[in-house]
Fold this protein.
Amino acid sequence: MTSEALYLKHVAVADRYPVIYANLSVSAGKQAKYAEAIEWADKALSAAQRILAVNPHAAVDLMHPVLVKASWLWESGKQVEAKALFASVAVPGVGDSEESTYWGCRACFYGSVGDQTELTAAIGIAETGSLVFHSGPGTAVLGHFLPLHHVAVLHARDIVGHLEDYAPDPSTLPRNLNLITGASGTTDIEGSYVRGAHGPRHLHIVLVGD
């Protein structure tokens, strides 16, 4: 199946799965196509609202497309509108299923001007050049995927030689654990190498000596 056919197949069912529209919004925004990204986010919201109108208990995420739209409004220069939209989202309670999404988007949105977020890595693996991140209050999961620039702070004392040397304590494992090796890249689209398709386009590592 060609990439165009796959694209059309996905869009054809997006009214039932609004997350597809939201993902298209993220993809367009990362290519600086902000008007298109905002349009996709609006389609995600409209589709989700139609589903909830029929079934108020449907498992549909309204918050994510709102936050994504706010991000692209900000990047397109509409900061006042972006802040108002972000402020309209209620803060999820502790343990709520949307808690991680909210704080992840908040970290990206307020991280700094220029679509970048700074997170501290738990461990660095010298063999592969990988960074290990444990999810938590200071390391929201979406902070690894939404920004254009991922700035990672790594302490020299936290570098191990090989992947096998990384052995987290099972009693203190985080809810989510991410291993990141370099910036996001893919050749899924017609064999052309694209950076930033599934995550940050740029990865910067700040090594802190101890």
Strands lie at 116-120, 123-125, 130-134, 149-155, 159-160, 177-180, 185-186, 194-195, 202-208.
